[in-house]
Each structure stands twice: as C-alpha cells, then as structure tokens.
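Researcher: Sequence recovery benchmark, item below. Answer with residues only.
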C-alpha cells in the first residue's frame, strides 16, 4: 500500500459506499469484507493500524474454553453458540493466514483426578464442536508425564494435567495483512487520519471531516454510510453524531509481561483456569520469548495507557507460584497494557447487562456502530456488520460475503517448509529465513531482495533477527510512518524487549528518514517519541527508571501534525 496514493484517492472527491472508522481487527475486517463484495470502501485510522486493543491481545485464537463451562452449567445457549462460532472462526483464521497463525498446545495442572476428568470431558466436547476444523486431540496425563513435558512447572500438590489445542497468532501483523488484502481488492485505507466531525444532510450522515495527522491537511469525504469500528473509542464517535448519546461501553485494562525464553517449553503453554478472583491467565511462548497475562481491571479510555505496578505485582505473584523458580521484576523484558471494550447492548431492557458477543447499533441519523467481540471472531463480526450496512444504507448491489476461505496477503502460495527453500535460495541463515517467513509468509523473498538491493541485510539490533530491509518494506508497502509503527507493530521488537527496542530506534529512524526525507531534527524527534512511550510503559513495573535521550525534542508528536515530508522521498526502485 502506498500511503500517498491512498490519501490522493481519499481526497479526490469520490463518494464511497462505506466509510469505516477504526483500523483495528474489526475495522480492517469490515473493510476487507466490503471490498470483496464489490463495494467502494474507505477505511481511516486515527493512529496506526492495530495501535490500540488489537495489537495488545494475549495472541490467542480461541473458541473460549471458559465460556463452554458456563454454557453447560447454566444451560446457556448464547454462551454455547459463542463457543461454537469461536471454534469455527478459529479454524478459518488459521487456514486463511497460516504464516501468522498456528496451533499451540496448552497445559492446565489439576489437583485431583476427579477435577481432571471433569475438565477433560469438557475439552473433549470442545474438540467435537470444532469438527473438521479441530487443531488436535485433548489429552489427560499424570503428574509424572506432565512434569516431563513442562519441567519448569511446579506441580507440587497436583495429581494430573490436561492438554488441549488452541491457536496463536501475531495480532498486529494480522491487522496489517487484513488492510493490505482489502487494498488489493480496491479498498482505500489510510492510517494516521482522524475523523474530526461527521457530515450530515437533512439529518442523515453523509460523510466525515478528516485530518491527516502526518501532513496536517483537512478535507471532507462523502459516503453513503459510516461504520464506527473504533473499539474502546466507539462512544466518542457516537457523541460526534449525538452529544447526548448514552454510553454503551465500559473499558477494562489488561496487561501482559514478557519473560525470557526458557520460562516455558518452546511448544507448550500454561493455562491457569481460575485465579482466586476468578480470572484466567496464560503463559505462552511467543516470538522467542514468553508472554504472561492478562489482568482485567476497570479503566478509563486513553491512548496507549501505561501499565500499573499493582497489576505487574499480580502477574509476578502467579508466575512465581506456578513455576519452579521465583519470577522477579528484573526478569521482565517488556510490559504493555491493552484496553478491552465491554459492551452494553442498547436494545436490551436491562442496560446494565454486558453483551457476551458483538453488538451492532444504528443511530437515528444512520451511524452504524460495531462494538465488542474478540479477535478470533473478527471475520464473522465483519460479515454481520457489512450485512447490516447493506440493509441500512441501501447497498443491495454488493455480493454475498466472500471472506470465509479468502487467503490473506502473504499466504497465497504458503506451504509450511517454505522457509527452508527461502534460506537455500537466498543463501541466508535458517533463523533469518524462519523469522521473515513467520512475519511475511510468501512475501519473505521480497524482503531479502530489497535488503540486497539497498544494503539493508544487517539487523536493526544485534540480538534479534529483524533486518533493515523490513523497515524499508514497512514504509513502502505497509504504511509505516512513525518509528513506533515499525518497532511496536510491523516488527514485534518493542513488545518483546523494550530495552532493545530503545536501542534499535536510531537505526530504524535512519532508514525511515532516508526513505521519507526526514531531516535530523525529525529523526531525533521520532527516536525521542518512541523512547518516551517505551519508558512510560516499562517504568510502570518498577524495574527500570525512565531514560532520557539527548535531544531538543521536549514534547511527543502524537497530538500535533508532523512536517509534510512524505513527498520528498529519495528516488529508488520499488519492488
């Protein structure tokens, strides 16, 4: 995706069938569904694709084991249908983006054989509900076998363990893949473009006022319908439409910590089904490190919220209780906080009841809001949203949903061992080939060609496999315009090791600056901005004091326009 070209199309005066506001899982999924039906669709995101909730998940693609127990114990058909839909969508996600998603085994230790039998029976039903899209068969193992499989686990007082399968994925890159696939089907997608107001004609919404937060330009875009898919910020968009609109969202914060490799086996995760306060925790191998979370606390809606020390303490206490050695603050490599939007269904009489699935709301002036749900079910949510939009805005010419078996960018010629052929063909180390293949799939060869052409084969940090060519690819083809876009979302470095991300920031800014025409002051400001954000997140857990850099930039760049330098790139051959 070329950002300048997409901005030009947004500014050309075209009337779109749909304007989608929000570039997370829901918004990108809606844009893809609408584009593949033949609708003229535009998507705008205030910050970067998946910058909010959608890049800060637990990285699991799941049907919802805990919902299944509630469905059975309470004979709750809604919960049962939620699990069945989640399992169906889990299978589709893994098939449609196999380079970004894969099965993972999870172990749950249990204290008695009776408890083990009870949980195992539920997991057998979980597997049966998945049908032909099942990822593996659940197992019940004794303590000795469990200890052998998971030697780091403290099994004192436990009799057995159950093992089951779910999926794991790279959420931020999944959102980018959705946006790029939508663009390949004709959608106009632009990050760092915010909606500053809604345009109405005779009381009906007919478009929006937009502002490019990079270049500063403002303009109006016309659309037959507007879909609000902004996650935790959905109420803010609803109040642009109606200042008196009642809230339909409640935010919950969930933090994760990243621990060193070796904390768990490379191919087995830990699932803690119920803490003393009823939460579910996961300890999962991810990107060569170990992710542990998440918490669930009431929170105010904010951009890039910092983790709180008490939440880190909570996770450290549980990690230490379940592992054979204590986990200390000094073990934490990264920590981050995501906001989950919990939704009240305005159509229900009891407005205090949280919706268990996604909710679609249409205002009197025609604003369609999609809220709630989970990453796993993004595709089904998008299908429902576009069905509703076609009905609400008279877009009957659109075809039926085409995304159920649609392969995403990067997976169209995928086969599991392609990284070996990639390494042999390009003469690179297997570790680099595997890393590229996991992030880009069948586009990995383009990264290596770009690296050789522009002398960008060196890593941006010596302890990680990410090379300079990935930065250039992110700018040219994935709309990365901030150093944070690259370090926190196009590459996972900032979410797995924040100190190393700080150290890599100047190298990333140098490559981006050459491509985008940044001067020295802009490069320094970009480095300072991402370091300040990482410091704010990381210092919250108490193991590191914020570090200052020697730069004249005294303020972050998030709330003001940046110099319009995009048009002054160096001339270079595109892929």
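Model:
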């Amino acid at each position: 995706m070329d950002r300048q070209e997409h901005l030009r199309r947004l500014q050309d005066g075209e009337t779109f069938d749909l304007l989608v506001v929000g570039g997370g899982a829901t918004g990108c999924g809606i844009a893809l569904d609408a584009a593949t039906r033949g609708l003229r669709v535009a998507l705008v995101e205030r910050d970067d694709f998946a910058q909010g909730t959608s890049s800060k998940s637990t990285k699991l693609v799941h049907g919802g084991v805990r919902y299944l127990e509630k469905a059975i114990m309470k004979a709750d058909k809604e919960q049962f249908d939620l699990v069945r839909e989640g399992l169906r969508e889990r299978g589709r996600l893994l098939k449609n983006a196999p380079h970004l998603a894969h099965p993972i085994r999870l172990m749950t230790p249990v204290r008695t054989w009776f408890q083990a039998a009870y949980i195992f029976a539920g997991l057998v039903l979980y597997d049966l509900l998945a049908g032909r899209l099942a990822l593996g068969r659940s197992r019940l193992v004794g303590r000795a076998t469990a200890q052998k499989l998971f030697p780091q686990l403290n099994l004192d007082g436990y009799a057995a363990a159950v093992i089951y399968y779910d999926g794991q994925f790279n959420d931020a890159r999944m959102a980018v893949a959705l946006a790029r696939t939508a663009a390949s089907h004709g959608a106009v997608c632009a990050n760092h473009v915010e909606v500053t107001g809604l345009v109405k004609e005779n009381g009906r919404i007919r478009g929006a006022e937009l502002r490019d937060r990079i270049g500063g330009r403002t303009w109006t875009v016309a659309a037959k319908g507007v879909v609000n898919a902004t996650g935790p910020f959905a109420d803010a968009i609803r109040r642009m439409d109606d200042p008196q609109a009642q809230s339909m969202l409640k935010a919950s914060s969930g933090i994760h910590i990243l621990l060193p490799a070796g904390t768990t086996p490379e191919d087995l995760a830990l699932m803690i089904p119920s803490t003393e306060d009823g939460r579910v925790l996961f300890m999962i191998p991810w990107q060569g490190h170990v992710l542990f979370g998440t918490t669930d606390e009431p929170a105010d809606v904010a951009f890039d919220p910092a983790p709180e020390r008490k939440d880190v303490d909570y996770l450290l206490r549980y990690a230490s209780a379940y592992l054979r050695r204590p986990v200390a603050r000094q073990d934490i490599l990264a920590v981050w906080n995501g906001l989950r939007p919990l939704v009240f269904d305005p159509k229900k009489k009891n407005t205090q009841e949280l919706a268990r699935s996604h909710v679609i709301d249409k205002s009197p002036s025609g604003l369609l809001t999609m809220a709630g749900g989970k990453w796993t079910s993004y595709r089904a949510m998008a299908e429902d949203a576009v069905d509703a939009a076609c009905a609400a805005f008279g877009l009957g010419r659109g075809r039926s949903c085409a995304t159920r078996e649609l392969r995403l960018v990067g997976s169209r010629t995928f086969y599991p061992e392609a990284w070996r052929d990639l390494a042999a063909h390009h003469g690179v180390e297997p570790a680099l080939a595997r890393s590229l293949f996991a992030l880009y799939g069948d586009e990995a060869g383009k990264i290596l060609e770009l690296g050789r052409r522009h002398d960008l084969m060196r890593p941006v940090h010596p302890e990680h496999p990410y090379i300079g060519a990935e930065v250039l690819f992110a700018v040219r083809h994935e709309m990365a315009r901030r150093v944070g876009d690259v370090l926190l979302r196009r590459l996972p470095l900032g979410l797995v090791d924040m100190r190393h991300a700080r150290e890599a920031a100047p190298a990333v800014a140098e490559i981006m600056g050459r491509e985008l025409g940044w001067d020295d002051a802009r490069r320094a400001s970009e480095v300072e901005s991402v370091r300040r954000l990482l410091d704010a997140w990381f210092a919250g857990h108490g193991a590191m004091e914020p570090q200052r850099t020697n730069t004249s930039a005294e303020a972050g760049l998030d709330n003001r326009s940046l110099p319009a330098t995009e048009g002054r790139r160096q001339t270079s051959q595109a892929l």
